[in-house]
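hey so i finally got around to running the thing on that chain from the lab meeting. sorry it took forever, my laptop kept dying and i had to restart like 3 times. anyway pasting the input first so we r on the same page abt which one it is
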Amino acid sequence: MGIESHRQIRRENDVSQWDEGSQMKYSEFKRWLLQQGAEFQKATGGGSHKKVNLNGRKSVFPDHGSKEMPEPLRKKIMKDLGL
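ok and heres what got predicted. didnt touch it at all, straight out
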């Protein structure tokens, strides 16, 4: 299975069910959060970090685009947002 088709399968599945060893890009996770109804705002002070709100819960999202996102960071943001 090619890497592109592997990513397509990952996009179609719930993000919390991805393999422990598999990584996702910041942009893929941001897209998933938007599908869940999350709202992003620029954090004060500029930089690449954004505030993310979902159902009254808040977290900070470091938006590094196409770079791979560490699994512990993804889990922390999901926990902060109650996902």
